[in-house]
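Quick question, first post here. What does this chain look like in 3D?
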Amino acid sequence: MGLPDEEASAKGFIKGYETGLREAFDEVINLATRKSFTTTELLLVVKNQKVAIPEKVMMRKRKILKETGIDLINITGPRLEVEKGVAPGSSLFIKEKFPTTSFRIFNQLIASGSKGMVISRSPRENTKAKVNGECVVYWLTKYDLGDEQTKQWYIQPTDLPILQSAVKKFVGINKDVQIVIMLDGLNYLISNNDYLAVLRMVQKLKDELTMIPAVFIVSADPASLSPNEVVQLENEMLNVVDTK
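> Answer (accepted):
Ran it through. Tokens below.
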């Protein structure tokens, strides 16, 4: 006979499974009966709803934390995701002074077959040396790099639209494969722009990459951000990993 805790856990799992199935079918029925969707349009909407599942789960975890004080985010969220591999559509805010954990996750995804792109404050050769495989690398810098061919791999920190265009181009070229985008230079971008402008850019990239779905990794040192800025970033990203 099972232990009381095991029985309660099993009953909770079955109850949650049943609730999830009921909500999913109710949503499909609602879409099919109340909206004039074609079969193709309905399929697209359902797929988009499926992509949004991780974010809905995170919203529920935050609600539980607020109402009960039980933290399911840091206990069962980031650690398990990192250990098992990050699913397409995930967005991660890695709080670290140096991007060690971010590159470890990035390399795991590259090793599994994903196409990768890194936008970093470090020079391109330094960044490439940290990646175990092929990837596209952009250097965030104000340095005048001379010829046009070389300049294409460098982004001025104040050129946020250029940064977004670089991501969009990479996504367009690799639309048929899994993608991982890593931003290692958030603190540098914030120091050269209005914080809200950088946050809006992160929000836009996160939404676009979630819908593909691709993995989006943002590495930043929380010590150089205000508490409010850290909270805003935590609220935007699906997973938060604190390396302390």
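Residues 4-34 form the longest helix (31 residues).
The mean pLDDT is 82.
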